[in-house]
Specification:
The longest helix has 41 residues, at 249-289. This protein is α+β, with helices and mostly antiparallel strands. The radius of gyration is 30 Å and the shape is elongated. α2 (184-213) runs antiparallel to α3 (220-237) and α2 packs parallel to α4. The protein has helices at 9-37, 184-213, 220-237, 249-289; strands at 40-43, 50-60, 65-74, 79-80, 85-86, 90-94, 102-104, 113-118, 131-142, 145-147, 149-155, 160-168, 174-182.
Length: 290
């Protein structure tokens, strides 16, 4: 009987790397999905209360502001028509980091509101390792009396991961200490971008060194590849998630140096190629005369 055939080592290793990569990717995506679905609760769960569903719609790191979509629902004796409207004028008081308090008229349907919240700490120039904070507080007043509040907080911005410390004040207000940092997918892609930028720059450096040391002259396909890489990196950099401004950590760690290195290699190859071509022309003329 013939021995069973074995897969060559290289295809087996490639298959193992692919399976491992897919597994790690699925695990990371599952973790992010679980974080997105997590709902943090703050405040009191009295029968007669005001529920506030606060969801981060987007976080603008450059503008240092996040947008909370707030849906207010009175419960128990504070509500009519199953929480669609309050029985009296309802005011939702917010913290100093937001712009205004929210007011809802009695017996009128409550609609969701988008509330801008100022972010503190951190700087977008630290991208992709920047982190921010936001302090949000909700208190409700109905009929000139404070009523208990329960906040259900979640995050819908896939570019940021959130951490929350929830607490309840003595007057029934709900307090949220929110921390925001770049999500794992953003970190992975940004680190990949930096590695790819350096890899392309080193590739151009090796190719340029080969052309110069071998005196290849003006090799137009190689020059076209180098020039295309120089401009392609700029477009590649602009695909960074969250569109960070120029001058962030991503630029200083990889992009600017890669562009400088590629431009230097391109100019060096052109100058060396011109010299090689100028030397080759007299030699060709002498050979033709002979």
């Amino acid at each position: 009987m013939s021995a069973p055939r074995r897969l060559p080592l290289l295809p087996a290793l490639l298959l193992l790397v692919i399976v491992a990569s897919v597994g790690v990717g699925a695990w990371l995506q599952f973790g992010e999905r679980q974080a997105q679905d997590t709902v943090h609760t703050a405040g009191r769960a009295d029968a007669d209360r005001v529920d506030v569903e606060a969801t981060i719609q987007r976080a603008d790191a450059a503008g240092r502001e996040l947008v909370l979509r707030v849906l207010v629902t009175p419960r128990g004796a504070l509500a009519e028509a199953d929480g669609v409207a309050p029985v009296e004028d309802l005011t939702l008081q917010t913290s100093a980091s937001t712009r205004d308090d929210l007011t809802f008229k009695a017996h009128q349907r409550i609609a969701g509101r988008d509330v801008p919240v100022a972010m503190t700490g951190g700087s977008v120039t630290d991208y992709p390792f920047d982190a921010y904070g936001a302090d949000v507080e909700f208190a409700a007043v109905m009929g000139h009396e404070k009523v208990p509040v329960r906040v259900l907080f979640s995050n819908n911005d896939v570019l940021f991961a959130s951490t929350v410390e929830a607490s309840t004040a003595g007057d029934g207000a709900a307090v949220l200490d929110i921390g925001l940092a770049r999500s794992n997918s953003v970190l992975v892609f940004a680190v990949f971008m930096m590695i790819a930028m350096w890899a392309l720059a080193v590739s151009v450096l090796i190719g340029g060194w080969f052309l110069v040391t071998r005196r290849k002259g003006l090799t137009w396909p190689a020059l076209g590849w180098m020039a295309a890489t120089l401009f392609a990196l700029a477009a590649f950099r602009n695909t960074a998630p969250g569109t960070p401004p120029i001058g962030c950590l991503l630029d200083y760690l990889a992009f600017l140096w890669a562009e400088i290195l590629i431009a230097f290699c391109l100019i060096t190859v052109v100058v060396a190629g011109c010299r090689a071509e100028s030397r080759a022309e007299p030699a060709a003329d002498e050979a033709g005369m002979a």
